[in-house]
From TrEMBL:
Protein's UniProt name: Kelch-like protein 6
Keywords tagged on the record: Kelch repeat, Repeat
Pfam families: BTB, Kelch_1, Kelch_KLHDC2_KLHL20_DRC7
PANTHER family recorded: KELCH PROTEIN (PTHR24412), KELCH-LIKE PROTEIN 6 (PTHR24412:SF428)
InterPro entries in the cross-refs: BTB/POZ_dom (IPR000210), Kelch-typ_b-propeller (IPR015915), Kelch_1 (IPR006652), SKP1/BTB/POZ_sf (IPR011333)
The BTB domain, residue ranges: 72-139
Length: 471
């Protein structure tokens, strides 16, 4: 390729050589500091070549492109200032921007993006750090920078506090119904340590549900994978599946289920999401689907041995457990079904002490805890010993309640008692003290909901009034 210039034609090589005379070519003294290490390891007639300086050259080149506003494809608007950037650089350095640009959100296609929750000076510092690995930290700006780095989920460990001052482990109550059998659109997010509720994006399909006069509740199956919440099902036999990204506080729709269902369960095992059993509108099914987050696709796994719905399910030590449930609309089973992904086979383990459905389970340390249904008790199963034991008695039935581990304790939320009335209390089981206490009272009773645990950032979540959770 030829380019016209004074005194004749320039070749591409001339252009490259001339460009190297610019800012990208450091002085001799600086070069030794910026080129990194060059390591050659001889192995017979082979040489392993490791040039760590190349990454520095690439980083310097990207920063030069940013300064010159070359090849930039997005503008971040903070206060009254604008920052031209490269989407690929932001996504590589920040899980927040990766979620924004790698999912089907409107920001993925927008040239200008308004950024809230951070001031322009702090944003400038973070972008400088992202492109150059350098930042000026002072007593005045250190807290703002750490908070912003946590907000944007900057991947580098250098940007994280030494302790989780800006994050808290919380449990979420998703979907379900109230005492008048109305759909719960809000997601209740509770922080037991700070005794507060956090604001979270409402469930998908909220507008449709609020406009509808149908009072049937939405009963989601839910689970967490890499701090994202996956939900499926809902009303009757829906195929919809959504995931909640805690970094950007949004629900994102993913690939549909192959078989629509409800009153099923979701479990994470080996980096994949399993959707198990349930009711397809005609009968209880034994179908099992697995979701690959990387390829956004569902595939089929070995079917259950016993067709069930409204059962408990969880994973433990590389295996999946399905406990109890209803083989039909009237009966319950005590069967414990175990799935081994290495063989793609199910087998039966020791049965529960009682037959039960409308139950939930959670894996915690070396046990699987099961609660709900008509049981006035919390039971535990030991996969190692293949045995069951009674953990503690409950004062009431808690059919279709939720259970989630949080801060080394188990929290049992809502449910329905023996009079079929919804329960608003949250119970806490402390395994160290072997004690069950009433933790708090929810703003309203709820049942048929999901309950999961995630880590939530405090720097970009507004606390609801402290009195919202009473003890």
């Amino acid at each position: 390729m030829l380019m016209a210039g004074q005194g004749g034609a320039w070749t591409m090589g001339d252009v490259v050589e001339k460009s190297l005379e610019g800012p990208l070519a450091p002085s001799t003294d600086e070069a030794s500091q910026k080129r990194g290490d060059l390591v050659e390891i001889l192995n017979g007639d082979k040489v392993k070549f490791d040039d760590t300086g190349l990454s520095l050259i690439l980083q310097n080149g990207l920063d030069t492109l940013r300064v010159e506003n070359a090849l930039t494809d997005v503008i971040l608007c903070v206060d009254i200032q604008e920052f031209s950037c490269h989407r690929v650089v932001l996504a590589a350095a920040s899980n927040y921007f990766r979620a924004m640009f790698c999912n089907d959100l409107k920001e993925k296609y927008e040239k200008r993006i308004i950024i809230k929750g951070v001031d322009a000076e702090t944003m400038h510092t973070l972008l400088d750090y992202t492109y150059t690995s350098k930042a000026l930290i002072t007593k005045q700006n250190v807290q703002r920078i750490l908070e912003a780095a946590n907000l944007f989920q900057i991947i580098s460990e250098r940007t994280k506090p030494r302790m989780h001052e800006f994050q808290s482990e919380v449990f979420m109550i998703i979907g379900g119904c109230t005492k008048d059998e109305r759909f719960v659109a809000e997601v209740t997010c509770l922080d037991p340590l700070r005794r507060s509720r956090l604001e979270v994006a409402k469930l998908p399909m909220t507008e449709h549900e609020l406009e509808s006069e149908n009072k049937k509740w939405v009963e989601f199956a839910c689970v967490t994978l890499k701090n994202e919440v996956y939900i499926s099902g809902g009303k009757e036999t829906q195929h919809d599946v959504w995931k909640y990204n805690s970094s950007i506080n949004k629900w994102i729709q993913i690939e549909y289920l192959n078989i629509g269902r409800w009153r099923h369960k979701m479990v994470v095992l080996g980096g994949k999401v399993y959707v198990i059993g349930g009711f397809d509108g005609l009968q209880r099914i034994n179908n099992v689907e697995t979701y690959d987050p990387f390829h956004n696709c569902w595939s089929e796994a070995a079917p259950l041995l016993v067709h069930v719905s409204s059962f408990a399910a969880t994973s433990h030590k590389k295996k999946l457990y399905v406990i109890g449930g209803g083989p039909n609309g009237k009966l319950a089973t005590d069967k414990t079904q175990c799935y081994d992904p290495s063989t793609n086979k199910w087998n039966l383990k020791s049965s529960m002490p009682v037959e039960a459905k409308c139950i939930n389970a959670v894996s915690f340390r070396d046990r699987i805890y099961v609660v709900g249904g008509a049981m006035r008790a919390l039971y535990a199963y030991s996969p190692l010993e293949d045995s069951w034991c009674l953990v503690t008695q409950l004062s009431h039935e808690r059919a279709s309640c939720g259970i989630a581990p949080c801060n080394n304790r188990l929290y049992i939320t809502g449910g329905r008692d023996e009079k079929n009335e919804v329960i608003a209390t949250v119970l806490c089981w402390d395994p160290e003290a072997q004690k069950l206490t009433e933790e708090c009272v929810l703003p309203r009773g709820v049942s048929h909901h999901g309950s999961v645990t995630i880590r939530k950032s405090y720097t970009h979540i507004r606390r609801i009034v402290p009195g919202a959770v009473s003890v």
